[in-house]
Amino acid sequence: MPHQVLVIVGSLRKEAYSLKVAHALAKAAPASLKLSVETLHGLSFFNQDLEANPPADWLAFRDKIKASDAVIFVTPEYNRSIPGVLRNAIDVASRPPGKSSFLGKPVGIVGNSPGPLGGVSAAMELKRSMSGICGPILGQPEIYLTQVGNSFNEQGEVTNEGFTKVIQQYVEAFAAFVGRQKKAMA
C-alpha cells in the first residue's frame, strides 16, 4: 500500500508555478507514494481567539495532514521568505501547542522561482520554521528549482528534460526517506 503524501502548495495564484511543480511531483511519484495536491484556497486566517472552537476549515486542513504519512511543501519565494498564505497554513496546522498536525510526519521542501536562486531563501526559512513542529525533514537532496517559468507548456506539463530529471530524482529520494522513517517507527 503506498504511503499517502500531502503536497501543500504555497501559492494561491491560478497558474502558480508551485502548483505546476506539485502536479509534476505527483506525476513522477513511484508506486510507493500517492501524492495528493492541496492548495490553501479557503483556509481562514489563524487567530488564537478561535482555538477553543476552531473553524471547520482549520479542522479539515488539520485532518488532511493527520491522515497523511508525510508532507511535501512546494513554495515560491516572496521577499526572501515564504508566502503569507503558507505561513498562515503552518500556524493553523501546528496549533494548539504540543498538538501539531505535522508531528512525526516526514517532510520534504521544494523551493522554486522563475529567477536564478530557485527559492532557496524560502526553503531555508521553511526548514527553520518546521524543525520544531514536524517529524524529520529530508536534508539531501535539497531541491531549488530555477527558471520555472520556462519549464512548463500551456497545459502545465513539464517541457524541460533536466527539470523532469531533477523532480524524478527528488521524489524517488523522498519515497526512500519516507520508507526509512516509517520502518524506523514500526
Account of the 3D structure:
The chain contains five helices and five strands, in the order βαβαβαβαβα. The protein is of the alpha/beta class and 186 residues long. A five-stranded parallel beta sheet has the order 2-1-3-4-5, with helices on both faces. α1 crosses α5. The longest helix has 25 residues. The radius of gyration is 16 Å and the shape is globular.
Question: Would you kindly provide a brief summary of this structure?
Answer:
The protein is an alpha/beta fold and 186 residues long.
Number of helices: 5
Strand runs, count: 5
Low-confidence stretches: none
- Order of strands, widest sheet: 2-1-3-4-5
Return the structural class.
alpha/beta
Molecular shape: globular
Q: What are the SSEs and their pairings?
A:
Blueprint (H helix, E strand, L loop, with lengths): L2 E7 L7 H12 L4 E6 L17 H12 L2 E7 L7 H10 L13 E6 L7 H11 L12 E3 L15 H25 L1
Parallel strand pairs: 1-2, 1-3, 3-4, 4-5
Tags for this entry?
186 residues, 5 helices, globular, 5-stranded parallel sheet, alpha/beta, 5 strands
